[in-house]
Structure formats: structure tokens, C-alpha cells
Amino acid sequence: MQIKITYPKPQKKKSHRGLVIEIGRNLFLLAAVLCAAINIWAGGKAWSVIVIWALYMAWSLLVHPDMIEYNRISQFTKAIVQSCIMLVLIDVFITSGWAANVVSIICFGSLIAVCLLLYTDFERQRHNLLPIILFSILSLIVTAVLVIISKGKVSWQVLVTFVLSFAVLAVCVKTMGWNIKSELKKMFHTI
Predict the structure, then answer these.
(1) Cα atoms in the Cβ-side hemisphere of radius 13 Å centred on 98
(2) For residue 66, how far is the Cα from the chain centroid?
(3) 31: helix, coil or strand?
(4) Among 93, 168, 158, residue whose Cα is nearest residue 129
(5) Which of 30, 52, 116, 165 could form a disulfide with 139 if both were Cys (CB 3.0 to 4.6 A apart)?
């Protein structure tokens, strides 16, 4: 005698949060497509690029944040980098001439804020040095590009950002010591 035990297959239930995120993603994509279509239809400046970037920022920062690097330093640096990209897009597509000064001021202010976030709670935040290192390297690259573009006329904000980002990079590398190689291996483990 064979007994067949048949259990009903469990139904895959989508969680309420997953359903809301899926609906939100579709609405965000629809809004992005509509903005681009309206901008193409109406003509003029490419304001839809800025709106699409703002939608991406809202999605990646608020609706669907990172699952792995979800700590205050990583999220703060991510928000600052995305905001600086937004300012550069506004400078390129709407009005021009002011983004270099504003982005450099935001970068050196953010470097100070990130260092305060790190060193006010160093024991818990010492594993979050890599986002600070990457942010300071990015700040160094941005300021170097601004120095090259400015052709000799460099504003004080750019110089302060350059010096501060180099100092933050040196302090973070010194703080990490020999662990920087292992942290880089952890970060780029898929390569």
C-alpha cells in the first residue's frame, strides 16, 4: 500500500510592501517617460533630464534604498554625490556658470560632515571608512577637473575642497592601515 501525501503547494504571496514598490516603480517609469515626451513635444531646454534624475534620486534614496551599505555615512555620501550631479545637470541644461563654485562648497562641507559622522562614533563607524575614502577620491578628481577647466583662475572653494579631500583621504588611509587591501577586495569581490 502506497500512501501519497500531497500537500498543497504554498502560494507565492507578494508582500504588501513589494506590491507598493512595484506599483511605485511603474509610476516612476511612467512619469519619466511622460516628462521626456512632453519635453520633446514642447521643445526648449532639456528640463526633463533634471526631472528624470530627481525621480531616480527619490527612488534610490527614499523608496528603494541600498540593502547592503545601508549606514548613515554611505547614505549621506550617496545623497551628496547625487545632489551634486543634479546641480551639474541644472548648470548644463538650464543655466550655466555657477555649478563649479556650488559643487565645491557642497563637497568640502560634506567632507567635514562625513568626518564628524565618522569620528563622533568611531567604534561603530570604523567599518564605514571606504565610502569616505571613495568620496574624498571623487572630490579630488572633481577639484582637479575644475582646476584644469578654470585655466589659472581658481576660486578659493576649489582649493579648500582639494586640500580638505586630500587630508581626509590621508587620515582615512592611515586609520585603515593595512586593512585597505582587504576592504577593497571585499568591495570588488565580484571582479
Answers:
(1) 8
(2) 10
(3) helix
(4) 168
(5) 165
Kindly state the average pLDDT of the residues 154-181: 81
CA pair distance 96, 104, nearest whole angstrom: 15
Residues 6+ apart with CB under 8 A from 113: 76
123: left (phi over 0), alpha (psi -120 to 50) or beta: alpha
3-state secondary structure of 74: helix
pLDDT tens string 54-72: 999 998 888 777 766 777 8
Q: Which among 60, 147, 155 has a CA at the least distance from the CA of 98?
A: 155
pLDDT in tens, 5-18: 777 776 666 677 77
C-alpha cell at 15: 508582500
**What DSSP line would sit under 112-175, residue for residue?**
HHHHHHHHHSHHHHGGGHHHHHHHHHHHHHHHHHHHHHHTT---HHHHHHHHHHHHHHHHHHHH
Give whole-number Cα distances, 56 to 21, 76, 130, 181, in Å. 14, 16, 24, 32
